[in-house]
Amino acid sequence: MSLITLAAPTPHAAPRSGFLWRLLRRPSGVVGLLLLAAIIAVAASAPLLYPDDPLDMVAQPFLWPGQDAAYPLGTDMMGRDIASGIFHGARVSLLIGAVAASVSLLIGTATGALAGYYGGRTDAALMRVTELFQTIPPFLFALAIVAILQPSIPTITLAIGITAWPSLARLVRAEVLKLRNGELVQASIALGAGDLRIIVLHILPNTLAPIIVSASILVASAILTESSLAFLGLGDPNVVSWGGMVGAGREVLRTDWYIATLPGLAIVVAVLALNLLGDGLNDALDPKGERRA
Amino acid sequence: MLQNQNAFQSSTREPVLAVEDLVVRFATARGAVHAVDGVSLALAAGETLGLVGESGCGKSTLGRAILRLIEPSQGHIRLDGTDVTHHSRSALRATRRKVQMVFQDPFASLDPRWTVGELIAEPLHIHGIGTRAARKAKVADILAKVGLPPEAARRYPHQFSGGQRQRIGIARALVLDPEVVVLDEPVSALDVSVQAQILNLLVDLQETLGVAFLFISHDLSVVEYVSDRVAVMYLGRMVEIADRETLFAAPAHPYTRALLDAVPQIGGDGAPRRPPLAGDLPSPYAPPPGCRFHTRCPTAQARCGSDIPVLRTLTGGHQVACHFPLATVPETA
Questions:
Q1: Domains in chain A, ordered, with CATH?
Q2: Gene3D superfamilies from the xrefs (chain A) (predicted)?
Q3: Which of A12, A183, A206 is nearest residue B109 as measured by Cβ atoms?
Q4: Which end of chain B is less packed: N or C, by CB atoms within 10 Å?
Q5: Angle ∠(B55,B241,B284) on CA atoms, nearest 5
Q6: How far off is chain B from A170, nearest CA to CA, in Å?
């Protein structure tokens, strides 16, 4: 009689409930998450800790970090508070990173899903457009767009968003192609499901792992691109940006290297956090890892 | 049309599904392949037609073409007398309620992120059937019918064994009360001990629900167990259709006989009664002219290499596509 109870399937928790736990079990996941949380905390506290415009000249220029307790990270050659700049710059970087990545995610996922699902001429047409975008180096492309449209936060975000999606489109297309001719989709068609239902409810959720992983990398590269644009002087002139701070500091790099280095470190930490998080997510979302765990 | 009428005669019941001269052509880099080349068959309400053949003979393609998962190149598919071959996607939705499919690999055909209850209710959702409560009741009802506990609805496919997953696949196919279910190698991926349970379940369900099955398999013993009639395919063509008893006792086509001979006999001396077929299945890119089986046929004559044999009726519903059918009196083994 115990045989019967053994044979009955035992109830399990939903397979998704352990996801955060799996992410937190990996060092890269924990470190990435903690660093990202710290950056978000910095961005969120900026208006409270530094209510004034970070572009204001508040003290004498070239104060080294630690020289004046009121300006723990010192001041730059214009007498602007570097700590205030880093705090406010985090807001700009995160905002542009998140929105630009969302734009890329939307274009890339839609293009890849439609190309992979419909195949044939739709695929050929969409992939030619993707290749067209890929033949232009994304940074130069973004640079050109911003130069033409005048640098402001919306134009920079848009420029990064519409240049960064091709690799994601290819990735999504490959994943969709794998599922397209599989029995999962065939079974759904046989049941009478429409294309939209199949793509949104069955295909995309099953390609979510690589999409989420690339999302974190997309945010990281968007932050990096924004910093590069700002470094070259194509940032929004009305807001402080890490890349802009590095760009401003490069003229005095030999004597007052901290002016360029401190915001540079902020960029490194942000990009590192997102890459580590992407790495951790990759492991945590891998179904094979699920079995091991 | 003549073939179809013969199929009608073979059964006193009206056919729910009729396939007429169906052709499925694939354009490939190496040229066109006729995976299904002029196949006709009829399926009466509540009966099981077994479809056998070697892998690559086009039996799965035929099954998928009937559901229009693969578009047929020529021919007709009639459902309850209505030609659905060229139905638009929206018209097809309604007909898809009537024809359902069970796939070979129940793990690949069930979305791993959905609970079993959601998976079985999905067809009802798609076709806008019932209220939430009615759908829930329907799911519980169908789960009971396929022999799964009601709690199964809350679990995920990976928490079930292969046989249980196939029960879920069957429940999903039956929840819309279809008239025809195409079963594509439904037990081939399962352990032999589980195969018998699933086959018995299918037989029971057919009795209670009156659904017709097109049962595709390469396994003759499985087909013999579940089928009322059996159709044999070779290289995209139908070679023989007969009642189960007739086909297994007195095959008229040399290919059918060779297939039956290839089934190991228990209690025999282990030696084959006749030499096995020589050679491999010819390339579907360049099928032999005339009778496609003549290159391997032990009784082939000169005209087999030039004239295409048409499917003709011997006695009753027994049809064979052979210029020189074997004597149809049961052999004394």
A1: 24-288 (1.10.3720.10)
A2: MetI-like
A3: A183
A4: C
A5: 30
A6: 23
Tokens 């071959």: give the residue: B85
Phi, psi angle pair for A278, to nearest 5°: -60, -40
CB contact (8 A) between residue A206 and residue B69:
no
In chain B, the residue whose alpha carbon lies closest to the alpha carbon of A207 is B113
Contact B320, B251 (CB under 8 A): no
pLDDT at B315: 81
Give how far A191 is from chain B: nearest CA, Å: 6
**Cβ-nearest to A205 among B108, B113, B155:** B113
Å between A195 CA and nearest CA of chain B: 10
Distances (CA, A) of A72 to A251, B159, B267: 22, 57, 93
* Contact by Cβ (8 Å): B305, B289: yes
Average the pLDDT over each of A11-15, A81-85, A169-173, A182-186 and give the range with the smallest value. A11-15
Test B96 with A11 for CB contact under 8 angstroms.
no
pLDDT at residue B21 tops 90: yes
CB-based contact B322:B254 (threshold 8 Å) = yes
What was the pLDDT predicted at A14? 46
Could A15 and B158 be called an inter-chain contact, meaning their C-beta atoms sit closer than 8 Å? yes
A258/B301 Cα distance (integer angstroms): 95
In DSSP terms, which residues pair with B183 in a beta bridge?
B102, B215
Residue B216 near residue B224, CB atoms below 8 Å: no
Chain A contact present for B167, CB below 8 A: no
A140-197 pLDDT, tens digit each: 999 999 999 999 999 999 999 999 999 999 999 999 999 998 889 999 999 999 999 9
Find the helix or strand (DSSP H, E) in which B241 lies: strand B237-243
Domains (ranges, CATH) in chain B?
1-98+206-255+268-293+307-333 (3.40.50.300)
Q: What is the ipTM of this complex?
A: 0.84
Measured distance CA(B246)–CA(B239) in Å, rounded: 15
**Does the pLDDT of residue B4 top 60, yes or no?**
no
Indicate the pTM of the whole model: 0.81
| Chain position carrying tokens 């050679």 | B279
Quickly state the pLDDT bin for B106 (edges 50, 70, 90).
confident
- A119 reaches B (C-beta below 8 A): no
For chain A, say whether B261 makes contact (Cβ under 8 Å). no
In chain B, the largest separation of any two C-alpha atoms, in whole Å, equals 67
pLDDT band for position B96 (50/70/90)? confident
Token pair 């994943």 is found at A175
Any bridge partners for residue B312, and if so which? B320
Show the tokens assigned to A170.
């290819």
Q: Which residues contact B84 (CB under 8 A, 6 or more apart)?
A: B68, B77, B78, B91, B92, B95
pLDDT in tens, B24-47: 999 888 888 889 999 999 999 999
The verdict on A187 touching B (C-beta cutoff 8 Å) is yes
Picking from A183, A188, A197, A208 by the largest number of B CB atoms within 10 A of its own CB, the best residue to mutate is A183
